[in-house]
Amino acid sequence: MCHPCVRVRRREAPYRARPGTGYGPSDGDRPHPPRRTSQCLTNRHWKERESRRALVPEDAEAMFASIQDPEGLRLTGTHAHFTLDTIRAHRARVAAADDRLDYVIALRDDPTYRDEVVLRHIDTENRTASFRVNLAAWAPRGAGLGSEAPVLLLRHGFKVWPRLHRVELEVFDFNPRAIRSYEEVGFVREGLKRDSLWWEDAPHGAVMMSML
Predict the structure, then answer these.
(1) Which of 19, 76, 82, 125 could join 86 via S-S bond, C-beta 3.0 to 4.6 A?
(2) How far is the C-alpha of 160 from the C-alpha of 104, rounded, in Å?
(3) Where are the beta strands (DSSP E) in 83-162?
């Protein structure tokens, strides 16, 4: 059953977490009991341009096509090779999982899979989760999809369910564009995992970032 949609009021500037608090509830609040989130997240400000929807089985082929992009594989440090059946099996696992929220970003007039935002490894006891965003190769890079998409899901994760206190991510040091995008959303750098990736005969570090 679809819970009432979460709506975010228009903001004239990119939303930034306030120091020390972020989107999170006060220290005295307790996390809500685990429950799956709405399948119909919406945002009034972007309603003419974008639609946010849950992943569906039909997205498997688009997802499979998106991971054939060499640049996307490099930016995510993906060495593994996937088949369409592997992706379909992954989608089935996601649908049954209770420790993650996965959403597709699509245009209002075109439901094609363009972007995916994910809160995963959700720990309701410690109120933590990790964050991931993926922009498909055919999505219009630089059009704001990669920076707009996280705001709604993060706000939902901090304010609605599972009432998170901390969200973390890692991004490779050769991807300054992504680092800037995450900083614009409100993530701050915590450190560097040195030489955590070996790519094209060279080691690369991963920048650790978080939001409270």
Answers:
(1) 82
(2) 19
(3) 101-107, 110-123, 128-135
pLDDT tens, 160-211? 999 999 999 999 999 998 999 899 999 999 999 999 999 999 999 999 999 9
Both structure tokens of 173 = 């040091």
Strand pairing class (101-107; 110-123): antiparallel
Do 54 and 104 meet the contact criterion of CB atoms below 8 Å apart?
yes
Strands 50-54, 101-107: pairing is antiparallel
Q: How is residue 196 annotated by DSSP?
A: E
The token duo for 115 is 């972007």
Give the predicted TM-score (pTM) of the model.
0.73
Pairing of β 128-135 and β 110-123: antiparallel
Decide: 105 and 59 in contact? Cβ < 8 Å: no
Look up residue 45 and give its DSSP letter: G
